[in-house]
Amino acid sequence: MTRMAPKLPVYMDNHATTQVDPRVLDAMLPYFTEKFGNAASRNHEFGWKAEEAVENARGQIARLINASPREIIFTSGATESDNLALKGVAEFHRAKGNHIITQATEHKAILDVCKRLQESGCEVTYLPVASDGRIHLDGLRRAITPKTILISIMYANNEIGVVQPIAEIGKIAKQAGVLFHTDAVQAIGKISVDVERDGIDLLSISAHKLYGPKGVGALYVRRKNPRAQLAPMIDGGGHERGLRSGTLNVPGIVGLGKACEICAKEMADESSRLAALRDKLKDAILSRLEDTTINGSLDHRLPNNLNLSFAGVEGDALLMGINDVAVSSGSACTSATLEPSHVLSALGVPEELAHSSIRFGLGRFNTPEDVDYVAARVVETVKRLRELSPLYEAAKSRAPQT
Ligand SMILES: *Cc1c(COP(=O)(O)O)cnc(C)c1O
């Protein structure tokens, strides 16, 4: 087989961050130089230009998720948006209740906030997920109590790409009169997200996961049916309808807006192209390697995600073996120990297999040549590592021969 050589190293870690699209950078640049005004300066041209750019971005973001521009609050990123949504609702609705429902495979920007809220008197239910990574809707219904003030379930997972039944969750929340927040960082710009169709009250966005710059994001806050009310976490000047004070990051906001505009136009084509590349990668690896399993549902999945476990291979050894390919392993370095991913653990993936897993995240700038190269590197490296692994050889000889 002859292969075109891709540009090395190959970047296939687009769930961690994405390259800024050149069109996004072009849109941002004037706001560092001649259009440097403060969007809160009401008395001159510099301020007006900046404010106009911010309002334009608000519209671009709102259009992508079927919201109204006034429902978009700018933040420093999705970690801040998640903090504002959960802590802000917990504080505002303290008199009504103190119970929050979330689920086991959330990002740390949700789980760590929940831990903090538990320390200050909140009760948190962590719903389990099925082996395909999706929550059970009956479990959600049963978890709701008169004290429940918020349901926070991510749209799509950042490790396994599994998409939750968001519209169904939105219906359940509405029937129960409970606010519904979703961390939609990985879904925005990849699949259709519609706050009306999906019954979402609060939604977190990050620019750097959709080909925009780092350090800027947004929180969608529903204004009617129902009005989502929350307390601010940062005071000082009353920017963003009082929900998030601080001088706006105008170039970053312009970049987030432009990134959303591009996604709105190109998402349908891009997603089918990426799904085809992802399937090509999956087939090229699975057809040449045995004892390789897919983590998470294939049917309810982002088009750009593949997460595989390679029995008998340490994920980190595999990462080192393919050091001209940027992907992530299913282990997280917490202090001194190597912990298996909490997401894979929640799916019931055994610890050994979780440590042997790799996340592939395809993106706008990947090519078919990248996919051929990555598949070939993974296959040859897994084979080599397995030959060196006495454990794998022993397991093979014990396995029933077919
Ligand atoms: C990256 C990510 C975040 C954090 O976003 P930042 O803008 O980097 O703070 C939160 N949730 C999910 C699902 C993510 O993938």
What's this model, at a glance?
With 402 residues, the protein is of the alpha/beta class.
Query: What's the total count of β strands?
Result: 15
The CATH superfamily name of the largest domain is Type I PLP-dependent aspartate aminotransferase-like (Major domain)
General form: globular
Mean pLDDT figure: 95
CATH architecture descriptor name of the largest domain: 3-Layer(aba) Sandwich
Number of helices: 12
CATH class of the largest domain: Alpha Beta
Report how far apart the termini are: 30 Å
The biggest beta sheet reads: 7 strands, mixed
Bound molecules: pyridoxal-5'-phosphate
* CATH topology assignment of the largest domain: Aspartate Aminotransferase, domain 2
Order of helices and strands: EHHEHEHEHEHEEEHEEHEEEEHHEHH
Structure description:
- This protein is α/β, with parallel strands linked by helices.
- The protein has two domains: 10-17 and 267-398, Aspartate Aminotransferase, domain 1 (Alpha-Beta Complex); 22-263, 3-Layer(aba) Sandwich (Aspartate Aminotransferase, domain 2).
- The protein contains twelve helices and 15 strands.
- The strands form four sheets. It has a seven-stranded mixed beta sheet, sandwiched between helices.
- Helix 4 links the parallel strand 3 (99-103) and strand 4 (123-127).
- Helix 3 (78-92) packs parallel to helix 4 (108-119).
- The model has no long low-confidence stretch (mean pLDDT 95).
- The chain binds pyridoxal-5'-phosphate.
- The site of pyridoxal-5'-phosphate has 13 residues, from helix 3.
